[in-house]
Specification:
The chain has 171 residues and is an alpha+beta fold. The chain contains five helices and seven strands; from the N terminus they run E-H-H-H-E-E-E-H-E-H-E-E. The termini are far apart.
């Protein structure tokens, strides 16, 4: 391709590209569950812009093109909710989803004091489940949303990267 993929914070100018990419990426999920009314396919540009203003949104770019994105927020207890991890179909299965997930986890930890991470995916979304498990997420619950869809919630606790970073009381 000649140009490498870069990962950075999203800007308001990215909103339209993110929404178009989200629509493209969630077609596979909609087909898998035979439900084209899912929220990622019906989200408005204004609602996406609100998420950009309130949460932590990271994008992957190939040149000027947004080819991936992920969003996150952190609640008062330090639990980060990660959502809408998307990668352009032509770039899937090359590690970009894992890079985006790591980037949003890092930013949510550094900028919003996240202590644990939570996300969900559909029970038939094997690729998503494989990615999340490979990144340390473990299933903690299942909610049946409809006859066709159960959502699996996965979590991961923050782990210090370097023992020297850990403060030990009384040491």
């Amino acid at each position: 391709m000649g140009t490498s993929v870069t990962i950075s914070a999203a800007t308001d100018q990215d909103a339209e590209q993110i929404l178009k990419l989200q629509y493209l990426c969630y077609q596979q999920e909609a087909a898998l569950y035979d439900d084209y009314g899912i929220e990622p396919l019906t989200q408005s540009l204004d609602a996406l812009r609100a998420e950009l203003g309130e949460g932590c949104v990271v994008v992957a770019r190939l040149g000027e093109e947004v080819v991936g994105s992920v969003r996150g927020t952190v609640d008062a207890d330090g639990t980060a909710a990660i959502a809408k991890l998307i990668v352009h179909p032509r770039l899937q299965r090359h590690g970009l989803g894992g890079r985006l997930l790591a980037a949003v986890e890092e930013r949510l930890t550094a900028e919003r004091s996240a202590k644990r991470f939570r996300l969900f995916t559909g029970h038939r979304s094997e690729g998503n489940l494989r990615l999340y498990r490979s990144r340390g997420y473990a299933p903690v619950g299942t909610e049946q949303v409809s006859r066709r869809l159960s959502l699996i919630t996965l979590e991961k606790e923050l782990v210090a990267k370097d023992p020297a970073e850990v403060f030990v009381a009384g040491a």
